[in-house]
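agent: user wants the full assembly modeled, not chains individually. Plan: 1) parse entity lines 2) check alphabet per entity 3) run joint structure prediction 4) return tokens. Steps 1-2 passed, four entities, 698 residues total. Proceeding.
--- entities ---
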Amino acid sequence: MVSECLKNHYFCDMSNINIRALAKELGLSVGTVSKALRDSHEISAGTKKKVQDLARKLNYVPNPYASSLRRRKSKTIAVVLPEVANSFFSLAIDGIEAVAQEKGYHVLIYLTHENLLKEEAILQDFQSGRVDGVLLSVSGQTTGIDHIRDLFAKDMPIVFFDRVCEDVETTKVITDDFESAYKATQFLIEKGCNHIGFLCISPGLSITIKRMQGYKKALSDHQRAVDPSDIIICPDDPDKNYTTIRNALEQEDRFDGIIAAIEKLSITTYLVCKELRLSIPGDVKVVGFSNLSSAAILNPSLTTITQPAFEMGKAAASALFKALKKDSSMPANECIVIPSTLIVRDSTG
Amino acid sequence: MVSECLKNHYFCDMSNINIRALAKELGLSVGTVSKALRDSHEISAGTKKKVQDLARKLNYVPNPYASSLRRRKSKTIAVVLPEVANSFFSLAIDGIEAVAQEKGYHVLIYLTHENLLKEEAILQDFQSGRVDGVLLSVSGQTTGIDHIRDLFAKDMPIVFFDRVCEDVETTKVITDDFESAYKATQFLIEKGCNHIGFLCISPGLSITIKRMQGYKKALSDHQRAVDPSDIIICPDDPDKNYTTIRNALEQEDRFDGIIAAIEKLSITTYLVCKELRLSIPGDVKVVGFSNLSSAAILNPSLTTITQPAFEMGKAAASALFKALKKDSSMPANECIVIPSTLIVRDSTG
DNA sequence: CTGAAAGCGCTAACAA
DNA sequence: TTGTTAGCGCTTTCAG
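--- prediction returned ---
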């Protein structure tokens, strides 16, 4: 029977029910109760049941911070991203969260807004042991990797996804950026394009480099000259990149084919073409790296290289949890490649 | 000078530098160091400087869990959402994160996937004190609110945004759903529509109800009968809601105007119209509640009611932090309404 | 202004 | 199988 004392306590502030209260109530020690709650094999079935029943009855919820402090494990991972208002990252988060929820982990989210200083500050904080592992897609400004190495050197498991750093020896989940860009470029060549532009944003990013390489390789494999001025590096600002793309398309010898290496650049390209009354695909054919759910109903529908965002999120999270399980072991130094799909629609004729 | 002992320790595992190590090194007590680090007024400027300098030099990072355990504050908030692969919620997270980062708070993210059981489990966990406050946008299945009340009753500050529960006396950040739907409906009437359909998903949701009321009121204010069968409740499944909408548009007396109360239903409507060779806006005019960045380049461009998602996220987070600052006080029982904008484009002729 | 000491709630040796 | 105890690292009285 529940004592008066405890009852009152219970009605006053349920959240103050702790292991000690349960122990006192049952005439057991805190150690026994702790083990019973964790379903330890060294506790008798009867005791376990009594403890668990009372815990449920009193709505006992363990204090995660006490547990984390003691066990040096937080059951929490961090996801560090450039931004979230972007279909790729949104879907990736969905995938990550699905796996984390299944494993009973909590997910802290941090946005760098493509700012290296923020990224550094965020990773620095993880030295505190706030999280057990990190899923990271680096900012567009991230060239140096000291801040990542620092954290990694202290045995923090880090798994990269999409925007990776080759130089850190850990698991990286990526899509086949080189091949996709190659395929897209080749496709535009086959469709008769003679002057194919490559639009990108952060030129230092792994994905940008790979995509650019795929683009260049496809051109040279098809006996096309690679003109550096066909690679347009846009500023990461909606208005400015509108101007940049507009300038490019106002040239005498403008592109008749465009590869937009980033989702938002496809949209800007469409807007510029509308403004300049250039027909897609008549005057310019467009392929975009994109996960837009609305790609099919754009005007015209957009040919995309669609990345397996959800799967990449899941794969990254799974790789991290694999490392966390056999604890004190770091993620394998491997690259998991999940292929993208070229979905042909009307923007390429 | 740093002692040999500490030096070795330092090189082995930086993260094990704690307050005690700093204290020992400086010949101070842990209490003094703790206060110096928190810039307490009861510590001399000289001592503070010495402590802070050493902390920086040794790259000391405080253990957040020890601090949380002791202070019963986690400096962490939770964001509980139905999903994230959705432009509204993505933008809202951006807004929330911006405020949280500024205030030095951490953000845990949880997705309910529109599932009430998950929502209950997630909120139940918060009883542990894992977070200092909760930003919540309820699932489509959430009709009962006992799980929310339970948490709220234990003094957990909760701020609702977008999908709110009227019955919980706390801050709610919403947009003017009734007025927006009214405006959209009126606009379609003015454009000559005689048979306006209202497409929605979760009929129990505050936003759905308000939008539906706005739709009905506009109809009756313009002497139109409100036919319940003009309100189409779609299942929350891409394939099924395609079928539902298709059925509706295959009727003899099909709609000549549609209000899509949810972003994804606009996209489905477009796909169905394409399939059935119905012209937008010729045969059917469409207005969608949507934050799609691609709305302007759809075929045809989509007239939208665009919600101030980012601002709503910021406002909700700000309201929560306001309550957290003057601690032990709960968020005001008020409704912050941030208006949406009707952006007229080609889908309404 | 600084130090000593008592915990926050939980876990994990080690004893019994 | 259960109990005892010593902390995890930090904060916060209260004394000095």
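agent: reporting back. Residues 98 and 314 of chain B are 7 Å apart (CA to CA). The domain at 72-173+309-338 of chain B is CATH 3.40.50.2300 (Rossmann fold).
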